[in-house]
Design a protein that fits this description.
The strands form two sheets. Strands 1-6-5-4-7-8-9-10 form an eight-stranded mixed beta sheet, sandwiched between helices. Strands 2-3 form a two-stranded antiparallel ribbon. The chain has one domain (2-241, 263-304): NAD(P)-binding Rossmann-like Domain (Rossmann fold), CATH 3.40.50.720. The protein is globular and about 60 Å long. With 332 residues, the protein is of the alpha/beta class. Strand 8 (194-200) and strand 9 form a beta hairpin. It is built from ten helices and ten strands. The protein is 37% helix and 14% strand.
């Protein structure tokens, strides 16, 4: 597995020079370099033989056509933190071999409660760490790293060369929101589907923007002219439906509305749920099967017995009723 800056990869070109200007990482394994498994050196299989064995347990559940479609597709993961970082492993294990990872930030200690990183990764770029990990799973995968993240200078190039985009761009900082809008704007221009994820307390909300049908940017919920002054709470109030807000998030929303600016709470199982749902959506979208535009899984609610679920639902409706005027105010 290699991370390239020149447009050529171990498994072939990723659509020309689409990824020029990316970070380069040394090769850790190759067909002529034995891999170590369980303390025993084994000669690495060639690309085709390796892929056949690697995806053997997918057969019967994923068709050969779907498998090859996923293998050939260039997939852009924009943002490699809680959401984008959660989808890389299942994508690779499912059989994706052409990934572009765009992320400007480094791992910090507070990321370790939910993101795929270790103490040794603190201070390192998230996309670079994930790309190195991919090499340990599939040495033939071609991964490009954009340590600048999504920018005005690369968004059109990255999106236009992708078959599918996963949007994990941060929503807690205003500059990142501008990048998120730009990502979706270029995806609409290029007609590339985007899968976005939002972890909210125990909820994972997945939103699908299939721009192949010409839908407006972010479903028309925000306008480009508003983005320079858009703050995170206002953005979320417009994009995330009120019905997606779980009971546990309301105390945090009240703190935010009162002016508190502490780090937004996030949990590992909510974030990782994106990695469960999104790869299946990828197969469906690449196969041009219809999919739901919104998928919501409330991890906290699933284990509750029926009575506790009813009480939680009633409490959530009461909280939402009290906070609705403030939420609607932020939508304007």
């Amino acid at each position: 597995m290699e991370i390239f800056a020149d447009g050529n990869a171990a498994t072939g070109s990723l659509r020309g020079n689409a990824m020029s200007g990316t970070e380069t990482t040394p090769v850790t394994m190759s067909a002529s370099n034995p891999a170590t498994t369980g303390g025993v050196e084994t000669e690495l299989l060639g690309p085709e033989e390796f892929y056949t064995a690697f995806t053997a347990r997918n057969r019967g559940l994923i068709s050969d056509r779907e498998q090859q479609m996923l293998r050939r597709a260039v997939i852009l993961v924009a943002g490699c933190g809680s959401i984008g970082g959660a989808v890389v492993e299942p994508l690779v294990r499912l059989g994706a071999e052409r990934l572009v990872l765009a992320e400007p930030d480094i791992y910090e200690l507070h990321n370790l409660n939910r993101q795929r990183a270790c103490m040794r990764d603190i201070g390192r770029n998230k996309a670079t760490v994930l790309a190195g990990w991919v090499a340990q799973v599939n040495p033939h995968a071609a991964v490009r790293v954009e340590t600048a993240g999504i920018t005005a200078g690369n968004a059109a190039r990255l999106v236009s060369n992708a078959a599918l985009v996963f949007d994990g761009v941060d929503v807690t900082a205003q500059p990142a929101l501008v990048c998120k809008y730009l990502l979706h704007k270029e995806a609409r221009r290029a007609g590339v589907p985007v899968i976005s994820g939002y972890d909210i307390a125990g909820v994972q909300l997945v939103m699908v923007y299939d721009y192949r049908g010409g839908m407006p940017v972010l479903g028309g919920r925000v306008a480009e002219r508003d983005m320079p002054e858009m703050d995170p709470l206002r953005f979320l109030a417009r994009v995330v439906p009120c019905t997606a807000l779980p009971l546990e998030i309301f105390p945090e929303l009240r703190r935010r509305l009162s002016g508190a600016n502490t780090g937004f709470p996030q949990l590992v199982y909510s974030a990782q749920m994106f990695g469960v749902l999104a790869p299946r959506l990828a197969l469906d979208l690449l196969s041009e099967r219809p999919v739901r535009r919104r998928i919501l899984v409330d991890v906290h609610d699933l284990p509750r017995p029926r009575g506790a679920r009813w009480r939680a639902t009633a409490a959530r409706v009461a909280e939402l009723t009290r906070m609705l005027p403030a939420v609607l105010g932020h939508r304007r």
